[in-house]
Amino acid sequence: EVQLLESGGGLVQPGGSLRLSCAASGFTFRNYAMSWVRQTPGKGLEWVSSISVSGGNTYYPDSVKGRFIISRDNSKNTLYLQMDSLRAEDTAVYYCAKRPGEIVSGAFDIWGQGTMVTVSS
Amino acid sequence: EIVLTQSPGTLSLSPGERATLSCRASQSVSTKYLAWYQQKPGQAPRLLIYGASSRATGIPDRFSGSGSGTDFTLTISRLEPEDFAVYYCQQYGNAPLTFGGGTKVEIK
User: Fold this and answer.
1) pLDDT band at A103, cuts 50/70/90?
2) Minimal C-alpha gap between A69 and chain B (Å)
3) Would you state the pLDDT for residue A105?
4) Residue ranges of chain B with per-residue pLDDT less than 70
5) How far is B39 from chain A (nearest CA, A)?
6) Closest partner CB to A107 (pick from B35, B44, B100)
7) pLDDT value at position A104?
8) How far apart are alpha carbons B98 and B91 in whole angstroms?
9) Phi, psi values for residue A99, rounded to 5°
10) How far apart are the first and last CA of chain A?
11) Any idea of the CA torsion for B29, B33, B39, B44, to the nearest 10 degrees?
């Protein structure tokens, strides 16, 4: 069964850091581009970052560029999201999501169950 | 940034009825790079449609997508009890990738 399992969420103070992980199973992780997507009640679904199969190409929207870093360890079948300089508006459920192929394109065909990040003092 | 506007916000229908959901883009979506997702409470979104009209693996044929350019439609031909949920459209042809605000399909 294809599965993505996020972890690492929690409560952090504004300006703090958090690292999310996403463990993949049931498919050949190194063959697929991956992404992070977040969801808040107020802003809905928002794409956060994407990474190529090798990890050599990464992409971010302006809202997180310079603060978040996506990475992957293909030997461990794991995707990461390092989040620094966190703000209250980063509070959300964070999902990791698989892309349908090697290139960083295509819809999000598999989603994890999500991990909650709360930024508050 | 491409803004996606979904309508209506809420659709109240009975099981067996036809549902028609709209997604309008602020500018043309490249090469039909438009997807639809279903989300139920407490669950992650699930991909239903990609490329504007192709059903994802395992999606029943009562779900269909159509449209191009700036106007797209998700149709559920006959609502089943498990279809009552929130539906989102998403464009993945232009960065940043963007989602619509969602349409809730509720039981009338």
Assistant:
1) confident
2) 16
3) 87
4) none
5) 11
6) B35
7) 83
8) 6
9) -95, 160
10) 39
11) -120
pLDDT in the model for residue B32: 82
User: Considering only CB atoms, which chain A residues are within 8 Å of B100?
Assistant: 44
Give CA–CA dist B1/A99, Å, rounded: 21
DSSP reduced 3-state for B11: strand
pLDDT of res. A101: 87
Could you tell me which of B75, B78, B79, B77 has the C-alpha nearest to residue B89?
B75
List the single residue in B43, B92, B99 with the smallest CB-CB distance to A106: B92
Residue B46 near residue B60, CB atoms below 8 Å: no
Residue among A75, A28, A36, A76 at smallest CA distance from A58: A36
Measure in Å the smallest separation between the Cα of B1 and chain A Cα atoms: 10
The reported pLDDT for the residue numbered A102 is: 85
A111 and B CB contact within 8 Å: yes
Angle (nearest 5°) at CA A118 between A115 and A121: 160
By CA distance, what is B56's nearest residue in A? A109
